[in-house]
Amino acid sequence: MTLGNAIAAELRKLLTLPSALLALALGALSTLGFAAMTASSLRDRLDSGDSSALAYTTTMETGFNLIPMGTIGTVVLGVVIISSEYAANRKDAGGGRQILASLTCVPRRGVLLAAKTIVLILVSGVLGAVTIPATIALSQFLLGAHGNSPSAVVAALGWRAVGGVVYWVLISVIAFAVTVLTRSGIVPLIAFIANLTLVSVTFMLTKLTPLANYLPDVAGAGMVGVFHLTDGMLDPLPGGLVMTAWAAGLLAIAARVFARRDG
Amino acid sequence: MIEIVGLTKSHGARLAVDDAGFTAAPGRVTGFLGPNGAGKSSTLRILLGLDHADSGTALIGGRPYRQLHNPLRTVGSLLDGSGAHRSRTARAHLSWVARSNGIPKARVRAVLEETGLADVAGKRVGTFSLGMGQRLGVAAALLGEPEVLVFDEPVNGLDPDGIRWIRRLLKEYAKAGRTVLISSHLMSEMAETADDLVVISAGRIVARGPLAEVTTGYASLEEAFFALTDPAQSSRDARSRS
């Protein structure tokens, strides 16, 4: 089956691309690493009887509230899965871009783009499904005696952890769709990573207009519940649906442009 | 069998291919000759389903490239470098290409041997020389044991040894009853390799036929080439020859 072959090829292509492997490592290790640091330092402060230790966080939230960090990994993944197609080889090695090989292998644009989307959802989904529960478990373990019981953790964070995985996947699909349009990965990488981890322009916009609550990352944040909380923030389910609609809409635009563009 | 009929393509205001038509027959090496910018690559890109034609058709075995099921098993192509990402190894590149068309993994090793790349299969493509990149492109084209080869400027960057290797490969391929279409701006190369010739100039096909026929009345292919592709003469020649 053509789509099956295309998916298998795209999976192999992505997992033999050094920048994609780096993205996976970055997403997993940055989340786990920062969670481990904050959980350990919180335990030390609690052990020493620091009464202000829980002023801004709880033993449940610690570690889990670093879920946004991991989007670095899925954003990079979404960008490089397509920007690598357009990166030119060195002139003295013959130049050329991989997109020509990809299109001669899978000449139907819709099939190629569908295969890439499916592989991206799969890989970023697995990254999230492994990293997010591991982050929660590691944080609770490092809290030692201050940690919560597994059943309490599942009750408090269960659906939000699932929301976190969905959030990671949808962010990667949005980054992918935008990069299909730009072809170069530089601008989307800088814009997405800055917005998600440094200064969130989209969240600041919610101060100006309630409409900003319908921007993809703000809407989707409702599913995870660890971002800057805003007044008009959507509930998890409508928020997730709004973010999904953004991802699907951008993907549809990307597919239309990709199908019409000459290779 | 490759059939191109009434093919037209403009890039913006510039007409790159102007009502071009020719065929490449099985069992023969067809040389697609023309100066740089004459429309060779534009024609081949449409033939390989990369670009859309404004009008006309380009068929391989009676079907447009985009409708071929597992196209690499029908057509092997080489266009603008190896098409491998620079941070991938040669083996990793060939391995995803094979997978995309359901080609058995054993073929990867076979084409690496055949193109003399077995020793560097584990090296990153970014460290390759021009000639090695070209060999990798040929390796990918041979993966699916296709009935048709379409190579754009295949001798580019190859050393004399490589040039002799690729000439022999293309001739043997055609001798086995398969279709080979190669483009070049190098007349000497075409005189060595091609059985049939299609000459393109400023987007128009100005001559086509067996090599001997196209060069009849001229001292050499070079003479014929300049007479045919000189803008002042080409239209007159095309008329008197067709």
Give an account of the 3D structure.
The complex is a heterodimer of chains A (263) and B (242). By secondary structure, chain A is mainly α. Chain A is built from 10 helices and no strands. Chain A has one domain (2-260). Chain A has helices at residues 2-15, 18-47, 71-86, 98-105, 109-142, 150-182, 186-198, 201-208, 216-224, 236-260. Chain B is globular and about 50 Å long. The relative contact order of chain B is 0.17. Chain B has 9 helices and 9 strands. Chain B folds into 2 domains: 1-73 and 146-242, 3-Layer(aba) Sandwich (Rossmann fold); 75-145. The longest helix of chain B is centred in the last third of the chain and has 16 residues, at 160-175. Chain B has helices at residues 40-47, 90-100, 106-114, 130-142, 160-175, 187-193, 211-215, 221-229, 231-241; strands spanning 2-11, 14-24, 29-33, 55-60, 75-78, 148-152, 179-184, 196-201, 204-210. The chains are: A mainly alpha (263), B alpha/beta (242). Chain A binds chain B through residues 2, 5-6, 8-10, 12-13, 16-19, 84, 87, 89-90, 92-98, 100-108, 260, 262-263, and chain B through 45, 48-52, 65-66, 68-72, 75, 77, 79-89, 92-93, 95-97, 99-102, 125-130, 132-134, 137, 140, 156-157.
